[in-house]
Amino acid sequence: MPLLKDLNTENITENTILTNSSCEDLRMKYLMERLVSHLHDFARETRLSTREWMSGIQFLTVVGQTCDEVRQEFILLSDILGLSLLIDAIDHPKPPHATEGTVLGPFHTHEAEEMSHGDKMSSDPDGEPLLVLCTLKDSAGRPIEGCKIDIWETDSTGRYDVQHADRKGPDGRCVMYSDKDGIFWFKAIKPISYPIPHDGPVGKLLKALRRHPYRPSHMHFMFEKPGYDNLITALYARGDPYETSDAVFGVKDSLVVDYTQTDREIAEKYDVEEGTLLMTYDFVLVSDEEASDLREQKSRKALEALGRKVKFLEGLPVPDVD
Amino acid sequence: MPLLKDLNTENITENTILTNSSCEDLRMKYLMERLVSHLHDFARETRLSTREWMSGIQFLTVVGQTCDEVRQEFILLSDILGLSLLIDAIDHPKPPHATEGTVLGPFHTHEAEEMSHGDKMSSDPDGEPLLVLCTLKDSAGRPIEGCKIDIWETDSTGRYDVQHADRKGPDGRCVMYSDKDGIFWFKAIKPISYPIPHDGPVGKLLKALRRHPYRPSHMHFMFEKPGYDNLITALYARGDPYETSDAVFGVKDSLVVDYTQTDREIAEKYDVEEGTLLMTYDFVLVSDEEASDLREQKSRKALEALGRKVKFLEGLPVPDVD
Predict the structure, then answer these.
(1) Domain Catechol dioxygenase N-terminal spans what residues (chains A, B) (predicted)?
(2) Number of domain units in chain A
């Protein structure tokens, strides 16, 4: 252990890292080493003042205290700083043919009703009906059966169920499973673009940065099946005014869709009125193996660029020190 | 503004920074640029997983929710990560002859009683009496008169007044002023080494890192007088078992003192029993001008090492871009 005395701007970092180095969890030790390095470099490079440091302390405190059972302000903060998008990209790398992922956002819940194909997942009478027809395949083009799919979207006012103080239960969200042909379909409403919650500290930060809080309209999807890499993604409506200025950086061109109108044949087959808005999409999941190979390849490259030999512990990289 | 689409591990950082660049406050813009860079580099270098990111989100949330009127868990977190010590060193640089600063800690309050020289600032009957005799001078050796001095210390159980749920009011703390000879003196008790609050998330983190939560015994001092750089410091007892392993990195050799025993002459002069423990110290404050010159010099050096020309806005550096 280091002798902790006479620490100053030049030696505090190495000594903090040494002090943390008794940690037996090598991954945590590596995370703490990088965290302390970056935190200290940030302060040194900006010459952070005591007053600014205290503003930061107070800001983070309010962010924590704005969180409750249905609001996660730290996720919002991560979202508007581009961190959430980055983490998804690191943790779920995709080969070119696979469906891209995007930010989870703070509105997923674990209490959605399980529904059957064709069910209506929104009870909002003011929403514009939207028929959604999808397929789910693996990267070799084979249908994936029995995949659990979480779907959630806004109501016609651009809000999720959990944003209504008087809500009775889950709405605008459901869980369903793909059939033997990889098909799943349901009746929804057209999602609406909306501001992320901006009455808290994250909203104040956006304002100070002269940024708007809006997200283009989208519908969220999350796919989970053993053997496949979890896919968290969303489909965005082409032409939305916020299509290229999403407050949380989530839009990808491959996830932008055109709504069309159902013709008579489709309308009859799926029991909707002719002319109802239609969204279709063919999702492609990668296997756990494809994802972990790609993740390992990229991790190795990133850590070697730092001049570190790498080994992997439960799929996560740590420096390989002798 | 950038077109925010198809963001990935390689381009998210520059685009997040561009998105924040409409901010008119140049200092805030610089802070955000460095914050986003370091946050993203941290994630990229560690290949942070979604699960680890979520643990971080949950950890910070609990830290925020552990804060209340008398507990500041984010300051504790900053303390145990070495950040608080670093910020003090950056913001209050000291020439060699001046009294060094150290961490403020989370136990300073603004409700201490104003006392006169010779008053007892602790009512704890179990504390070992300690006579404290100090002088306060500028860097040319001239006495500083009328400086406001906040002093605070633990009781005989190693706790500050605010850590007692049933406390009646301030105790073990006071505010006093130096006299025309720069002298101030008071009766206290011997401070006791203690663990920082470790029943919350910061305590759990220390445990995971196999670190103890103890601070060596010390007495806090804060000096404020217009024209002089604020000094936040503390005097540590030599020989304390935690002298070289302070959980918050605060000990400096120049701040470690030996307690002696009062002889008859001193005891009579200051109205204490002969043999009472005695602590003496000669504090030296630097002027605002000395501090800001040194701060600017060091800031310039630090930012130029980053390859940036610097200008100063209200004493704080920002890159000087044309």
Answers:
(1) 25-98
(2) 2
- A157 and A239 within one domain: yes
- The helix (H) or strand (E) run that includes residue A53 is helix A50-66
Establish if B20 touches chain A: CB-CB under 8 angstroms: yes
How many helices (H) and strands (E) chain B has is answered by: 8, 14
CA angle, A8 as apex, A7 and A10 as ends, to 5°?
A: 115
Are the Cβ atoms of B249 and A43 closer than 8 angstroms? no
Question: Does the beta carbon of B140 lie under 8 angstroms from any beta carbon of chain A?
Answer: no
Q: Which chain A residues are within 8 Å of B88, Cβ to Cβ?
A: 50
- Is B18 at the interface with chain A, CB within 8 A? no
Instruction: Tell me which residue range forms the domain holding A118.
Output: 96-286
Please answer yes or no on whether A4 and B85 come within 8 Å at the CB atom: no
- C-alpha distance from B305 to closest chain A C-alpha (Å): 9
Same domain for B207 and B138, yes or no, is yes
CB-based burial of residue B10 (10 Å sphere; 0-12 exposed, 13-18 middle, 19+ buried)?
A: exposed
Query: Are the C-beta atoms of B180 and B135 separated by less than 8 Å?
Result: no
Least confident of A94-103, A160-169, B136-145: A160-169
- Whole-model pTM: value is 0.93
* Shared domain check, A202 and A111: yes
Q: Are A8 and B89 in contact (CB under 8 A)?
A: yes
Q: Residue A44 and residue B302: Cβ atoms within 8 Å?
A: yes
Q: Which residues contact A113 (CB under 8 A, 6 or more apart)?
A: A170, A173, A174, A175
Could you report the per-residue pLDDT of A170-204, keeping only the tens digit for each?
A: 999 999 999 999 999 999 999 999 999 999 999 99
The reply to whether B112 and B193 lie within a common domain is: yes
From chain A, pick out residues whose CB is under 8 angstroms from the CB of B89: 7-9, 12
Mean pLDDT of chain A: 94
What pLDDT score does B322 carry?
59
CATH of the domain at B221: 2.60.130.10
* CB within 8 Å: B209 and A22: yes
* B307 close to A (CB below 8 A): no
Residue A3 included in any domain:
no
Same domain (yes/no): B224, B304: no
A232 & A273 share domain: yes
In a domain, A14, yes or no: no
8 Å CB contact of A72 and B62: no
**Strand positions, DSSP E, B92-147:** 113-114, 129-138
**Inter-chain contact B30–A46, Cβ cutoff 8 Å?**
yes
Task: Kindly state whether residues A233 and A302 are assigned to the same domain.
Answer: no
Say if residue B234 is in the same domain as residue B318.
no
Q: Is residue B9 part of a domain?
A: no
